[in-house]
From TrEMBL:
Residues 36-55 bind DNA. It comes from the Bacteria. Residues 13-73 form the HTH tetR-type domain. Pfam families: TetR_N. The keyword Zinc-finger does not apply. Keywords: DNA-binding. This is TetR/AcrR family transcriptional regulator.
Length: 192
């Protein structure tokens, strides 16, 4: 690679990073539907032409962000076997959330981002459960119920924890959510 090509690649990397950081900051400030390309490019100090060189629309940028989150999370849980390692996968979800901070919290908890969250959940569920031997023994309808339960329970617990401003420590919410998710309500009332 020539020195000129290296500089160009570094400029491309830097420009895309600035676009994504600016986009994330805007999402923290307002709902996605209210963000405009003009506002993003003004804040990122680039022109619209530069934005369109990398993305056709804000939807493309949002989709890429969602795909990156899904891919990274799937990579972090790929060594686990379901349903045996559900607790480990749940723990990874909370650690992943902590790593990505407020932006991940917003797209996970805010009702305006249900479509993003559902796409990420579907990607993760399909990738993590597809190799499960135990899942192959369930009917399509039983799989649907299982996926629905795990999604609803885990996301609801997470959203409530965020809504309560994380008054329970990270370790405690992981333990609590694992107990509820894997062992049910009565697990909270058993004596240690």
């Amino acid at each position: 690679m020539t020195e000129n090509a290296e500089k160009k690649d570094l400029r491309v990397i830097k420009t895309i990073r600035i676009i994504k950081e600016t986009f994330k900051n805007l999402i923290l400030e307002k709902n996605y539907e209210k963000i405009t390309i003009k506002e993003l490019t003004d804040r990122a100090e680039i022109n619209k032409k530069t934005f369109y060189r990398y993305y056709n629309s804000l939807d493309d940028l949002l989709l890429e962000t969602q795909n990156e989150f899904s891919k990274e999370y799937i990579e972090s849980v790929k060594m686990y076997e379901l349903p045996n390692d559900l607790e480990k996968i749940n723990r990874e979800f909370y650690l992943f959330s902590k790593k990505h901070g407020e932006f991940f919290e917003k797209i996970t908890c805010d009702i305006n981002y249900n479509y993003i969250r559902q796409k990420m959940i579907n990607n993760v569920m399909n990738s993590t459960w597809e190799y499960s031997e135990k899942l192959k023994n369930l009917s399509e309808y039983e799989k649907n119920i299982l996926f629905s339960y795990i999604q609803a329970a885990s996301i609801s617990i997470y959203k409530q924890w965020v809504k309560d401003k994380k008054k329970i420590s990270l370790d405690k919410i992981i333990e609590l959510s694992n107990n509820l998710l894997c062992r049910g309500v009565f697990s909270l009332f058993k004596k240690s």
